Amino acid sequence: MIVTIDGPAGAGKSSISRQVAEQLGFEFLDTGAMYRAVAWAVLRQNRELTDASAVAEVAQRLRIDLSGGKVLVDGEDATAEIRTPEVTQATRYAASNVEVRAHLVELQQQFGREKNLVTEGRDQGTVVFPHAECKIYLTASPEERARRRVADLAARGVPAEFDDILAQQNRRDEEDSSREVGPLRKADDAVELCTDGMTPDEVIQRLIEIVEARKASL
């Protein structure tokens, strides 16, 4: 069974989806981390983010391992580094790159074969796994998502201003929704869940209820 959880930046997809997968006993695939890993590697290699061919070349050569709750890039632990504001800003160059996207989508589909899987991203239910048995669109208001992002950065010792984060997030929402390849879009058959006012535990419980109800109907 494949469960896709799509939604905008800051909706809490990664942490929530990981815990849902653990409680269900499913594998977890953080596709956003894959695009972040490519952006991190491009920056690390001092390649030009605006050079689409260079970004694609870096992606094709990378070994990305998401096992054990860590993100290993060519064997190096980049789990923390890929979440910095610099990488967050650079990730759009990987996400909007046609060749990068085709390569990573293929890797994601390979990962999902013959496994019970919870996968999160922007286009999991629409492009990568259009025939997934359970599709969820996880969202929250822009202000709520920005507050969560500021709190997350503060917890990691990275200072950030709410207004700056909100502006960056709004730009990213526009870019994610308007790009030609793999745009952010709610699948027609997805269940939408707005998490404003909900605790993480409440969100996890609601998502598990949605998945279990879908399993029972199969």
UniProtKB/TrEMBL annotation:
Localisation: Cytoplasm
Keywords: ATP-binding, Cytoplasm, Kinase, Nucleotide-binding, Transferase
Catalyses which reaction(s): CMP + ATP = CDP + ADP; dCMP + ATP = dCDP + ADP
Root EC class: transferase
Cellular component GO terms held in the UniProt record: cytosol
Residue ranges occupied by any Cytidylate kinase domain in the UniProt entry: 3-212
NCBIfam families to which the protein is assigned, alphabetical: cmk
Name this protein carries in UniProt: Cytidylate kinase
Source species: Blastopirellula marina
Gene assigned in the entry: cmk
